[in-house]
Fold this protein.
Amino acid sequence: MTNRPLYLPVLLGTVRQGRASVHAARFVTTQLAARAGVETELIDIAQLPLRIDDAGEATKDPALSATLTRADGLVIVSPEYNHSFPGLLKHVLDGYLKEYIHKAVGVVGVSAGTFGSARGIQDLLPVLRELGLVTIFWDVNVGPVSKVFGEGGELLDAALVPRTGKFLSELIWMARTLRHGRESIPLE
Amino acid sequence: MTCPKCQTAMNHHADKLVEPATDAERTYVDPQLGGVVKRTHTCPACGDVEFELAPPPAQP
């Protein structure tokens, strides 16, 4: 079995001005970076070259492809917009396929309302499955985001720490398990 | 399949059925499955991931 650290980047899935989801993304990145044997980084889709003159893998960014190939799993931080997840997040996700297959994914949902993007997460799950990602069943629901983070990103709700801890523990377990399978267990 | 980056033998762990996107891919269509099968391989040494088109079944 390989001794490489697990690499679990965090994908911030919104480009909106004034997005509060960035606080959740930074928080979970910090929590993940504190785990032993794990490397992470924050990938902000607002910083990616978002081609809109084609679709699917034709829009693939080589740098992000390399990052996703290296990844053993993903954390997706997504706000809820009109009862779903952002269209530009879907556009980014659709640009890749082989990079995702049999890798773990967990979702952090963020909303201005009480439910912490529960509806956005429900919409996202079948998309992740079709991409070949393997979802964990612990989500992090951040809502109302104004009661969880201050305007400067300071944490206002201490309960987010243990909730995120449970989420990350499952994600790391799944990422380790799937890495072993990808690298060592033949399909047939 | 051999890893193109480090020459280690890769592990075939998944098959993905897709619509053929090019004329070359159309020659790989498996009529029984209704599309092209992309075999997914992962390198146990460096973690690289590669697709390989599965050959279509032999015709009778």
Remarks:
- The first helix of chain B runs from residue 23 to 26.
- Strands of chain B lie at 11-18, 36-42, 49-53.
- The CA atoms of residues 17 and 33 of chain B lie 8 Å apart.
